[in-house]
Amino acid sequence: MGKGYMGKVLFVDLSKGELKEETIPDEVYQKYIGGMGLAAYLLYNKIPANADPLGPDNIIGFLPGLLTGTGSFFTGRWMVAAKSPLTGSWGDANCGGSLSPAIKRCGYDGIFFSGISKKPVYLYIDHHTKELRDASEYWGKDAVEAEEMLIAASGSKKTRVACIGEAGEKLSLISGVSTDKGRMAGRSGIGAVMGSKKLKAIVLNGKKRIQVHDKAEMKHLSKLANKFVKFQVPLPNLMPGMAGILMRALPNAMAQDGMLYKMMLRKWGTVSMNQLSPEMGDSPIKNWMGSSKDWGFSKSYSTHPGKILKREKVKYHCYSCPLGCGGICSMKGKYKETHKPEYETVLALGGLCMNKDADSIFYLNEILNRAGMDTISAGAAAAFAIECYENGILTKKDTDGLELKWGNSKAITQLIEKMIKREGIGDLLADGVKKAAEKIGKGAEQYAIHAGGQELPMHDARNDPGFALHYTAEPTPGRHTLGAGLYYEMFQLWKVAKKLPKVLPLYMKGAKYKTDNEKAVMGATNSKFMSVVNSAGGCKFGMFIGAKRVRLFDWLNAATGWNKTPEEYLAMGENIQTIKQSFNVKHGIEPKNITVSDRVLGKPFQTEGANKGRTVDLEPVRSAYWSEFGWNPETGKPTPERMAEFTNP
Amino acid sequence: MGEYKTYRPKRKILKWLYLYVFMWFTGRAIKIAAKVDDEVKKEFDSIPNNFNVALEVLPYGPALVVGKTEDGKVQYLGSSTKDKKIDLRMIVHNIENAMQLFTFQESTAISFMRNRLYLDGEIPYAAAFVRVFDAVEVYLLPKIIAKLAVKRYPAWSLIRKLSGRVKIYLRAGIGV
Amino acid sequence: MYLPEYCEFLSPVQIASGHHVLEKIPGFLKALNAKRPLILADKGVTAAGLIGIVEDAIKDNVQIGAIDDDVPPDSDLKVVSRLSDVYRKNNCDAIIAVGGGSVLDTAKGLNILVSEDADNLMEFAGANKLKRPLKPFIAIPTTAGTGSELTMAAVIADHDNFIKILFGSRFLLPDIAIIDSRMTLTLPAFFTAATAMDAMTHAVESYICLQKNPLSDAHALSAISLISKNLLNVIRKPDDQEGRLLLAKAATLAGMAFSNSTVGIVHTLGHSVGGVCGVPHGTCMSIFLPYGLEYNYHLVNPFIAELLFPLAGPEVYADTPENKRAEKTIEYIRQLNQDLHDATGGRHARFLSEILNRDGEQMVKKSHFDAIARISIGDGTKFYNPEEIDYDDSMLVLEASWDGRPLNRNLVKKNA
Amino acid sequence: MSRTDYSDFLCPIKFCCGKLALETLPAELRVYNARKPLILFSNKAVINGLIDPVKQAFDDSEMVAGIYDGVPESPTLSTIRELSDIYIKNGHDALIAVGSGSVMNLAKVLNIVVSGEPGDLKTCQGEDKITKPLNPFFVVPEASATGLMANGSACIDNFSFTSRYLIPDYLAIDPRIVQQETVGVIIDAAMRALSSSSFAYTLPDTDYFIDPYAYLAIQTICENLIPVIENADSKKGFKDYLIMNDTEKGKMALVTASVIGGFISFCQPAGIVMRLSEALSEYCQLSSGILAGLLLPYGLEYAMLKEGYQTEKLLLALAGPDVYSRTPENERGKSAMGILRDIQDKLFHLTDGYIPRTLAGAGISENQFSEMIERMSQNDEGIDSKGCLSILNHAREGRPVSDI
Amino acid sequence: MAYSIIDECIGCGACRTLCPAGAITGEKEQVHVINKEFCIECGTCGRICANEAVEDGFGILCQRVKRKDWKKPVFNAGLCASCRTCVDTCPVGCISLSSSIVKKDPREYPFLEDPKACVSCGFCEADCPVDAITLEILSKETQAAA
After folding, report:
1. Domain locations in chain E?
2. Are B113 and C414 a contacting pair at CB < 8 A?
3. Which of A184, C378, D28, E40 maximizes the CB count within 10 A of its CB?
4. Does the fold of domain E68-145 match that of domain E1-65?
5. What residue segments make up the domains of chain D, in order of their start?
């Protein structure tokens, strides 16, 4: 009688080089599910207060989701979590690829590293052995090369690797962890934590079986979900761009059904938004200064979905994903192929810096993946540098002779190459815009667009105020994956859980900016649901299809044998959110101080473009959001008794 | 060797509808009987205010929710117990047993005794509610059927029975 | 033989009976893989020295977690939560309850708290709220009569807001019930008579009420024959161990019978009189038993007739003609009450006005009748009585049983 | 102290018989918090069309049921492996066995495997080796149920298990299931139950907790066996659909009695008659149940003389209080045996000769008796071979046993 | 429950070389032993053992199946959601992906790359979320062609 999870985690002490297994009782899974929840529970208890993120006390964990490998769909994502050096708060990043089942097949629901190793090492686990091995010959290699060498060294084609590149080794605070030759877990600067511990990679090739409570029910639900994924309507390449223009023009907005976005994802992947978002005002342009006027249809034409699709050799599916939004594109120049750049990468390196040249974007995408640096933060840093240069804060001498002008793709490419090698201006920018602005001074803070240190992703709060709420109120600031007004519409949670606000099929755009309590409830439900999804290893693109079509809660019940209602799962999500916020409070973070610059909130509002005249009133919605979780509405901190619940005896 | 197939249970829609209509009508009849018949009124006085009683069929079946509001008025609160404050539940295990009860093959006491119906809440109020239920059945049904539904057919005067029956049928059926 | 259209029977409690059964408890604990039991009792039990007997029987091969004996006569929420702390502090893993109904009910409540490791009992109030078997629980009844070691219900009072909370679930039943003759050896004659009549009423009523079914009838018949054969000579010779054991077994059999075929009017009135005037349960039972039979006479007299055989034995049964047997049964029971009245020197009351408390006043007065009647029509056992009971019916029976004259049967309201 | 000193009794089965008994299955599963039962049907059950009533019992409930029909008559370990694979793969959490003894036996072994792990088959072998309660196990017996299911023992290939946790938790006897049955099978089950409960009822020192069960089994069989056989194939009139007629009630009562008989044979060591009839059934085509019925009066008389069995008590159960009170004290034993013998005669007439009046009719020769008794006395010495021989001879001539 | 080897084993070592989990140890001509902790119950040892010396968790002897009669996976591209579950769950890794299975469809679908390596354990068929894989005895030419 299986339970879906393995019941054990592995603790590796890099200072002493010891490996210790720890069994996790069933009650913990019943409360925190797995993945993000389990990581939050364990790290909250095991990382001492105000530990140095790059010191030995910080603990980094690699965790699969509970549903990974159980026969459910969209559940192949894995989590890496630690105290974030970039924001000083709870840091986590999640990524697809095929590493998640590999962790579980080694028999673990999580592998955690503490301490610092004297010399570079990597962890090797297969069916028989688990040990730390010397990684000095791989140290210095870029992520893709290191991965190929490690797989060859392991002698089996099925080995899965997660490793850091140069950026991580050089402790760049915006570096991440790469797997499958370029799938990135980039946010919260987790790569720097691995770099600080001298941990180059984890190499896994386990063979354990994953047992499930009710396999037939899992298949029944998966076939149901597959039916919706396979439903496809032919879509012309320029359709998204046209739709963007229409949505900008219309005064009212339509509640989105996830199936439309699913069909676009299945045909083009996330790049389908390359023209749609800038046109409707969802994408920030010219370091959040510009508007859809500056990045018109002609400028975004060079990276419109059809063009990207022409370069795509083959579609790429993450583990257990029937949708397949990824792809491998061929490239001219030094590197022959790269993972299809995501919408965030194209806009960060394109629209944000007004860089029209698609080839430079492809090349930058590949070198950033190889270096293991987060493409969003790199683009944001470049845009920040261009604006400082434009306003004279940075002179030609500071930029080692680079002409940092909007759209000068050659200069931007060289700047990012310098950032990877930490040379000159690159060393300044390699730790994110917040640290760079502090070092430069001279009023550069106003151009540094971030939330609590994390560079903002390519979704403009002025277009969907939900983003502003989730950028600032979440325990992990500056993330677009946790919730927004649009996400609540597509999740359709009110169809499975009782007492949730319904969304009108058609409503005026102005309604999005009202600060009534319903917005807070929607935001809170988003966060709770995404906590459960991230703990089960789920991918939000799958969940967009709709709660009644892709039934995550039924999968959880069938895999574990529990009999929990959707309301109980959302309550578990609330529990997980509260632990992350308690982690922040324990490490001295003041939630009310995490804000975004006024430029993002539309103060003063823009005079042209799609978000003309839009301002976002954040405070009332944020305190209502916090009280939804039972935290203190002013300070955003959970009550001490609530925090005491999580400390294990 | 045998072969295996899962059987996903079907819903008995006809029986559900029959019960739904019957419970709807009985519920309204109880509300009116509380006004018309003083014996029923006395029974309801013994039940505290803001107290809801539900005769519910597990797992999806219709329900009969009757209750007293704050100011003591008897109300028929519809046929579903979702998000209502229910103080006393009389739960029927499944729809077949409810059919036995409402086609009078078993009287209320007999189905209670055969553990088809069990109580979750204060017993004295349940006893009062069963007496009300029996009184309404005597009003609504002709003697030969009512005898099956009730343990002891009360010796009411003919006038009282007829007048009550007319009022209830009129008010419950057509009236508000 | 009576074959109903539908019936259920369940008595999943292991019964270990005999003279030296207490010594076997360590074996039972090991079978239930428990090592540190908590022994529960009430003041009366310790006063009678029964706790000493139990302790010596198991002391040398089982470590006793703790012994706690201040359980009040009617169990209470606060007592249960206090006991759960005692249980947890001594990390016990099983409960041994020694005593009557209230101790067993408290033990059931305690078992809910410690097995679900909750701290608010109210979450589990009502029927079928428990989902899993609880921790091991051994019951040692010391009053051969209540049979509460075999019922699936537990009633725990909440004295702050004066309500009685009912818990009903199959998992409340003890794993094992120990019937040891030493437990009832020192029970005084008056209590023996009262509890034995309580058991007799359980058996008789379970035979005539609506939930009558073949298995509970068989248990009831053997219970009645055991009690009627042994009661009087146990009263006369209290230290007769064999008789005590048979009476205890009869009480358990009656408990099995009535927990599947619930009792009727005698208990309806008995509970109300006990509630209003605080009269011991056994006494009310023996008084109302003949009246209960007379009240339901017109519906169940063939069954009453069948009771004559176990009650009076084959000779009397053969002598009385077919149609007179029901009358004879009722008269025999009245005669039994009379003999008990004489044997206990008048303490065993034959009718309501005779019930006296320790210092001799009349416990039940005519002024109580109204309150008793009103409460009785709300009692749970009322549903199971063959004939409907309303306010006037209970008043009629109370009046009749005030001075012991037989009930005038044609006054009883029949099906119009 | 005499034997009444210590007696240990447990009957954990919840009996539920009567109209709509099948509909109570979902409600009973809810008590055990089970949501997905696996229902096993024997081949015979499938032929008799028992699948539909059981399936409809789960209509309108929130439980998905797995139906596995056609359990082979003589199951082997590979059937257990296949079924446990189905049970685990589909996340079942309760077992319901419908049909005759062989399905119940298989279900018990399956329950051991699925509640723990396949290795338990080896560790839990033998007597009382199972330590913790197993998953819920319900039983819906057919009329041919031999009571085997109610006892706590099961065996498959060369594994045998006995434990109180193997006794089923719930027993649903429903008229729709009990209908179709051949007369011979009913008689076999009834006579087997009659002999095991008669021996339990007339024990020299009565066990007061087994008594009610035994009394009920004997009384039901005597009152209902003959009437049920007489109108076994009467068609159901319209009235019978609303209210159950007597033959239906009779059939249900007989099944209850045979289940209780099976349970009693698990509590009490097998009586002399049971062992003899098991051995005899190899020598002739009559089933062991019918042979037990034949040997019963003679076995009881022998037991009364040798070990002081209280056969006069038997008259109360056989004929009821009236006859019991009227017959004087000393003749009660004799008249009880008389009743048993004329039941045998009635069966002889009803089945027009198939069931012989005495052992002679069974066509077993003299020397086969002695050879059989030697074989029996090898494997358990407690056999008083002289006594057995005299029982068999008396049974053959139909002469009551008057002296040992 | 792990498999176990009984005394009839003649120590030929066929199972030791073939076991995908490397759970079997033993010298030549000695009775081999299956390490309970590593065994993934794929049943290969039971199928390959010439004189049937392997018992499964239930204690039932496994029947020997000649290698050519081993059932191998056949993939139904119409049902397949190309979710790579089978590639990951195969203990010997003989399934891999190729985008030339379905014409004009850039998606990668699974195919049996190395039929000889396949030990017919059936994990792919059991784990495929949409039951797109069936195990069949591959005819001569399909085995050669793949």
Report:
1. 1-65, 68-145
2. no
3. A184
4. yes
5. 14-173, 183-397
Residue with tokens 């039991």, as numbered in its chain? C37
Q: Which residues of chain D are within 8 Å of residue A558 when distances are taken between CB atoms?
A: 91
Contact state of B6 with A499 under an 8 Å Cβ cutoff: no
* A588 conformational bin, left if phi > 0, alpha if psi -120 to 50, beta if neither: left
pLDDT at D235: 64
CB contact under 8 Å between D91 and A213, yes or no, is yes
- What's the gap in Å between the CA of D37 and the closest CA on chain A? 12
Beta carbons within 8 Å of D147's beta carbon, 6+ residues apart: D189, D192, D193, D196, D258, D259, D260, D261, D262, D263, D265
Q: What is the pLDDT of residues D69-94, one digit of tens each?
A: 878 888 888 888 889 989 988 889 99
Q: Which residues of chain E have pLDDT under 50?
A: 146
Cβ neighbours for D233, distance < 8 A, ≥ 6 positions apart: none
The answer to pTM > 0.80 is yes
- Number of cross-chain residue pairs from A and B with Cβ atoms under 8 Å apart: 4
Residue of E nearest to A230 (CA): E81
| pLDDT < 50 positions in chain A | none
Count of beta carbons in the 10 Å neighbourhood of residue A100 = 31
CA distances from C389 to B113, C285, C411 (A): 16, 17, 13
Q: Do D253 and C8 touch (CB under 8 A)?
A: no
Q: Can you list the residues of chain C whose pLDDT is less than 50? A: none
Does domain D183-397 match CATH 1.20.1090.10? yes
10 Å Cβ neighbour count for C166? Answer: 18
For the segment(s) C14-183, the CATH number from 3.30.10.20, 3.40.50.1970, 3.10.290.10, 3.30.70.360 is 3.40.50.1970
Confidence of residue D381 (pLDDT cuts 50, 70, 90): low
Residue E144 has a pLDDT of 56
Question: Looking at the domain covering A237-455, what would its CATH class be?
Answer: mainly alpha
The CATH number of the domain covering residues in E68-145: 3.30.70.3270
For the segment(s) E1-65, the CATH number from 3.30.70.20, 3.40.250.10, 1.10.630.10, 3.30.460.10 is 3.30.70.20
Neighbour subunits, A (≥3 Cβ pairs < 8 A): B, D, E
CA distance A223 to chain B (A): 16
pLDDT-derived band at D239, boundaries 50, 70, 90: low
Can you list the domains of chain B with their CATH numbers? 13-170 (3.30.1050.10)
**3-class secondary-structure state, position C275:** helix
Least Cα separation, residue B5 to chain A (angstroms): 11
Strand ranges of the sheet holding A78-83, from the earlier edge strand across to the other edge = A18-23, A8-13, A111-114, A60-64, A78-83, A90-95
What distance in Å separates the CA atoms of residue C155 and residue C139, rounded to the nearest whole number? 16
CATH of segment(s) A8-205:
3.60.9.10
User: Which of B6, B82, B83 faces A216 most closely, judged by CB atoms?
Assistant: B6
Return d(Cα D250, Cα D18) in angstroms, integer. Answer: 11
d(CA B151, CA E26): 80
Q: Return the CATH number of the domain spanning residue range D14-173.
A: 3.40.50.1970
Q: Do D26 and B12 touch (CB under 8 A)?
A: no
Q: Residue D375: is its pLDDT beyond 80? A: no
Domain A465-644 is found in CATH 1.10.599.10: yes
Between A319 and D389, where is the model more confident?
Answer: A319
Measured between CA atoms, the residue of chain B closest to residue D60 is B11
The structural architecture, per CATH, of the domain C189-411 is Up-down Bundle (1.20)
Domains of chain C: which residue ranges? 14-183, 189-411
Kindly determine whether residue B83 and residue A499, on different chains, have CB atoms separated by under 8 Å: yes
The answer to whether D20 faces chain C, any CB pair under 8 Å, is: yes
Inspect the interface and report whether the beta carbons of B83 and A498 lie closer than 8 Å: yes
Pairing of strands C163-168, C126-127: parallel
- Put simply, the answer to whether E58 touches D81 (Cβ < 8 Å) is yes
- pLDDT for A579-593, tens place per residue? 999 999 999 999 988
Are A312 and E20 inside 8 Å of each other by CB?
Answer: no
